[in-house]
Design a protein that fits this description.
- The complex is a heterodimer of chains A (183) and B (701).
- Chain A is mostly beta strands and 183 residues long.
- Chain A folds into 2 domains: 74 residues, Immunoglobulin-like; 82 residues, Immunoglobulin-like, CATH 2.60.40.
- In chain A, strand 13 and strand 14 form a beta hairpin.
- The radius of gyration of chain A is 17 Å and the shape is globular.
- Chain A starts with a strand and ends in a 12-residue tail after the last strand.
- Chain B is α+β, with helices and mostly antiparallel strands and 701 residues long.
- Helices cover 56% and strands 15% of the residues of chain B.
- Chain B is built from 23 helices and 15 strands.
- In chain B, strand 8 and strand 9 form a beta hairpin.
- In chain B, helix 10 packs across helix 11, helix 15 packs antiparallel against helix 16 and helix 22 packs antiparallel against helix 23.
- Chain B is rod-shaped.
- About 1% of the residues of chain B have low confidence.
- Classes of the chains: A mainly beta (183), B alpha+beta (701).
- At the A-B interface, strand 10 and strand 13 of A face helix 2 and strand 5 of B.
């Protein structure tokens, strides 16, 4: 994985971090999760939804702050199920019909893989972070994290392919980074 | 008698039966062995095919199961699980899927959970982690595993990423081989590069096939198997991973063995039947043959076997027929031979010997019933002169003509013989002297060109025996000749002249043998005109030799008489042989060689000649034992005969024959001397040479 560019834009004491994630295969790091871990902690999000329709979890990749209650509405025409192994603790929402919504609180940081036991092709990733500074790369691997106070951070990049990157960065106005990583 | 043909035949039939049986069995065995081979081959091909197909199916099943597992969310989720969860899940999955081993690794190849057998070989997993499913055979240290490894992917389409891999294993080891064996009945061994890696039997150390080709015979623990290799489905040819099926040869061969046994029993029974039948056949063949053999033996020992009743149409019947014919012609030939012994060949009248025999019989018969018996002796007048002027052929014709006449005129029951060269004898039973004289006239009146003198005698007190009768007739005949020939004179004891006749008769009877000997010698000379005088010369030589060697006068006389008679047996030798110019054939030689014995038989008939028998019989014996008829050696040969042998040989050598001139005296004497001690009594041979030389010197002087 490479972080082709990281631009820190200064705005007083705060800046914006942008960049492009490229996988080792040369493909864009689509839906890569990028987050900065520093002194500041996050608070649970008020609202987070992972929808189920057309036998697909949507969005495929989500980032939530720790303690957030995530809603799993079944907006499909068929029964669905959501289960995961999260920190060796399995949660399984069981099967439920369309129109129903089930919720789950993600109270620890880490990656959760969600699947539907009925539909093998369905999968979703939920990255639980304890920082307010995070972003999900677009289809071309581009990301942008705004209002990041100047200071030192651990930059974390994760992609569902399994490629990861951890890097110490100092947020200052105007900067570009290119990072490579292998599996 | 156990016929050797019969037992030989039986042996032959037994041999043929055994030979046939054995060869049929052998052929059957070879065919059976071929069949067994074929069966075993088919069996192992079937077993191999079945096992291959079974393994392929199982591989397919394993692939499906593993693929299914790899798509199952809960399995995929295991890549996020902790070791305990993954391990438990792996065991559960392994059991549910019925596989021998199951492994789950994460995207980095780190083992998350494992259950049962694993390969300890990363290659399937590496392939799977690279996103490609893999299935094939792996060797796990002496055991083959069928492995299917599938990637565990999360995401859809282009965004599906390999998060780990699941690998399941089927073990091809002894357990599996046992299962196969139970379902297929065929032993099975998994092999890798020809080495056994588990099987239903221990094939360690055996040279196992490692490529697909013809079945081979493999011996394991003293049992023969037909082994056939097949590559394991899913293995690469270069890896030589395969299965070898084993079919027990004896199991395959069992039915054939039983069949072979039954076959052998049937063959044995058939052979026995053939043997018995052959035995009966052999007996049937040998019995008539035995009959022929017995008949031949009988023939050999002088008897006449009964004619065979021929009711067979085969070779035996033919043999019997031929034998019958042969016996018949032998009988005929013998009869002819016997009659030849009895008849004079020229005139076909009884010869001297035969006439004497018949005369004896007639005298006996007449004496017994007191009947008359008259004897008429006829002599051709001046026959020698007739021969000289008209030739021998005319002489013979005359003899034949007289014989015909006598036969024609003699009454029925009369015995007619050629008594000597030109002397005929007629014995007429029941006839008086008058009748005999009348007979003479009847004969005489029918004869032209020659005249006959005759002497007639009849049985009476003075002439009570055959000898006496003969001498009486001889006397009468000689008187007829003295009286001027061409007349018949009677020996008549009742007339005046009787006293003179009787006196004369008595004088003759003192030495009856003189007449007999002369008569016999005459008979021999008559038969063999070329040796005329031979008997007399031999008698003379032998007598001189005996005298020279100091024998008594009586003995010298005996030697002389024996010399006169030594060839008397030649009467019984056919003229064709006797008078044959040149060398005799072997058969003729054999006939010729019978004459000493024939001579003995003749001489024995005359009691007065008894002491001449030895000389006649043995005059052809040789000092060295190589003579005949008895092969006597040295002094075992009667002395008389030894004198005769020297004399006989010398005369034979020196006398002229129509076809050769007699040898020179000295040459002949040298021969005699050279053969002293081999052919002749040495003393006699040397003495003889001396005598002859002396006398010839005397003659020359």
């Amino acid at each position: 994985m490479s972080l082709l560019a990281m631009l820190v834009l200064a705005g007083g004491a705060r800046g914006t971090v942008t960049g492009v994630v490229t996988l080792s295969s040369g493909r864009f790091g689509r839906s890569a999760v990028v987050f900065l871990e520093g002194a500041e902690r996050s608070r649970p999000m008020a609202h987070a939804v992972i929808d189920q329709r057309d036998k697909t979890f949507f969005p495929h990749v989500s980032v939530v702050t720790v303690g957030t209650r995530v809603q799993f509405p079944n907006n499909d025409t068929v029964f669905h199920n959501v289960f995961t192994e999260f920190h060796s603790a399995r949660f399984d929402l069981g099967m439920y019909a369309r129109g129903k919504t089930k919720t789950e609180v993600f109270d620890r940081t880490g990656l959760a893989v969600l699947m539907c036991s009925i539909h093998p092709t369905m999968s979703a990733y939920v990255m639980v972070v304890d920082t307010p500074f995070y972003a999900i790369a677009d289809s071309r691997g581009r990301f942008s994290i705004k209002d990041v106070p100047a200071g030192s951070y651990e930059l974390n990049v994760w992609h569902e392919s399994g490629e990861k990157l951890t890097k110490s960065v100092s947020v200052q106005p105007g900067a570009e980074l290119e990072v490579k990583t292998g599996r | 008698m156990q016929s050797s043909i019969s037992s030989n035949l039986r042996r032959l039939i037994a041999l043929i039966c055994i030979g046939l049986g054995v060869s049929v069995l052998l052929v059957f065995k070879v065919l059976a062995a071929k069949q067994v081979d074929e069966r075993a081959r088919e069996d192992s091909q079937f077993a191999t095919a079945a096992v291959s197909s079974f393994i392929k199916d199982q591989g397919d099943v394993l692939r499906s199961i593993t693929t299914f597992m790899s798509t199952t969310p809960r399995v995929r989720m295991l890549v996020e699980s902790d070791a305990q969860t993954a391990t438990d899940a792996a065991e559960e999955l392994r059991r549910d899927a019925g596989v021998d081993g199951l492994e789950i690794v994460d995207r980095n190849g780190k083992l998350l959970g494992a259950a049962g057998d694993a390969a300890g070989d990363d290659s399937p997993i590496r392939e799977a982690l690279a996103g490609r499913g893999w299935s094939g055979i792996v060797n796990r240290g002496g055991e083959l595993l069928f492995a299917v490894s599938e990637p565990l992917k999360i995401g859809v389409g282009e965004d599906a990423f390999v998060q780990g891999a699941v690998t399941s294993y089927l073990r091809f080891g002894s357990d599996r081989a046992q299962e196969f064996k139970q379902s297929l009945g065929t032993d099975l061994v998994f092999t890798d590069h020809g080495n056994p890696v588990g099987g239903s039997i221990n094939a360690g150390g055996a040279d196992l096939p490692k490529a697909e080709r013809e079945p081979v015979t493999v011996s394991l623990a003293d049992t023969d198997y037909i082994a056939l290799y097949a590559a394991l489905p899913g293995s690469k040819p270069a890896d030589h991973e395969g299965i070898v099926t084993f079919r027990r040869v004896d199991e395959v061969a069992g039915p054939y063995k039983r069949l072979s046994f039954a076959f052998g029993l049937i063959l044995g029974f058939l052979a026995l039947v053939a043997l018995v039948a052959g035995s009966i056949f052999a007996k049937g063949l040998a019995k008539p043959l035995d009959g022929v053999v017995a008949a031949a033996r009988q023939l050999q020992s002088g008897g006449w076997p009964e004619k065979f009743h021929v009711d067979r149409k085969d070779e035996i019947g033919l043999l019997q027929n031929v034998f019958n014919e042969m016996t018949g012609s032998l009988k005929e030939a013998q009869a002819k031979l016997l009659s030849m012994l009895d008849l004079d060949p020229l005139t076909e009248l009884h010869n001297h010997r035969s006439f004497r025999e018949r005369l004896d019989r007639a005298v006996e018969e007449a004496s017994a019933d007191g009947g008359h018996l008259s004897l008429l002796l006829l002599d051709i007048d001046q026959f020698k002169a007739f021969n000289e002027s008209n030739g021998m052929a005319a002489g013979d014709a005359l003899l034949r003509e007289i014989a015909r006449l006598v036969r024609a005129k003699a009454p029925e029951g009369a015995v007619v013989g050629r008594y000597a060269g030109e002397e005929f004898a007629v014995a007429v039973p029941g006839e008086t002297l008058d009748g005999a004289e009348e007979l003479y006239h009847r004969i005489r009146s029918g004869l032209q060109g020659a005249t006959l003198s005759a002497g007639a005698a009849t049985l009476s007190i003075e002439t009570s025996g055959a000898d006496a009768l003969l001498v009486a007739a001889e006397l009468a005949l000689s008187r007829a000749k003295q009286l001027g020939r061409d007349r018949c004179s009677r020996f008549d004891s009742t007339e005046d002249s009787a006293s003179a006749d009787a006196l004369e008769l008595q004088r003759y009877m003192k030495d009856a043998s003189v007449a007999t000997i002369q008569a016999l010698a005459a008979a021999v000379d008559a038969k063999d005109p070329y040796t005329q005088g031979h008997s007399e010369r031999v008698a003379q030589y032998a007598a001189e030799l005996a005298e020279f060697l100091g024998e008594s006068p009586e003995e010298v006389e005996r030697v002389r008489k024996a010399g006169t008679l030594h060839d008397v047996g030649k009467i019984g030798v056919p003229d064709a042989i006797l008078a044959k110019p040149g060398r005799l054939t072997e058969d003729e030689q054999r006939v010729m060689m019978t004459h000493p014995v024939l001579g003995e038989l003749i001489v024995r008939k005359v009691p007065q000649l008894e002491d001449l028998v030895a000389g006649v019989r043995s005059h052809h014996e040789r000092w060295d034992g190589k003579g005949y008829p008895d092969g006597l050696v040295g002094e075992a040969i009667p002395k008389v005969a030894r004198y005769l042998a020297v004399a006989d040989t010398y005369d034979a050598m020196t006398s002229d024959r129509p076809y050769r001139k007699g040898m020179d005296v000295n040459f002949a004497l040298n021969e005699i001397e050279m053969n002293a001690g081999s052919q002749f009594d040495p003393e006699m041979a040397l003495a003889f040479a001396r005598i002859i030389r002396k006398s010839s010197i005397r003659k020359a002087a």
